[in-house]
């Protein structure tokens, strides 16, 4: 399948520099590597959002059972979550609906 798209002058210059440097064999290789990085970031985003949703569900469960909740997320959860700009935006939206999520944002 062939997909045609336009690159800006800056993007094309970057692709050409990477090919000229010998790091990549062809323009298609550069685009393939870029898509691979995008795919990896999307996977990381999904993992981060799943961790956020799990933390919120655990907090809700603790509140439903009348347990004391200090609003903190266990340290192990902090280490497991990697946040980029898109994840932080999603966290901001969730915080608006669920104030207990603010502890996870501080971990990022």
Give a description of the structure:
The chain is mostly helical and 108 residues long. The chain has one domain (9-107). It has helices spanning 9-20, 27-64, 75-80, 85-97, 102-107. Helix 2 (27-64) runs parallel beside helix 4 (85-97). The model is unreliable at 75-79 (pLDDT under 50).
Q: How large a portion of the residues is in β-strands, by DSSP E?
A: under 5%
How many whole angstroms does the radius of gyration measure?
20 Å
Helix content: 55-70%
Order of helices and strands: HHHHH
Low-confidence parts: 75-79
Report the total helices: 5
In this structure, how is the largest beta sheet organized? none
Mean pLDDT: 78
Total strand segments: 0
Any idea what the shape is? elongated
The total number of structural domains is 1
Structural class: mainly alpha
The first-to-last residue Cα distance is: 39 Å
Task: Please provide a brief summary of the model.
With 108 residues, the protein is mostly helical.
Layout of strands and helices, then pairs:
Elements: H1 9-20, H2 27-64, H3 75-80, H4 85-97, H5 102-107
Helix pairs in contact: 2-4
Features:
108 residues, 69% helix, elongated, 5 helices
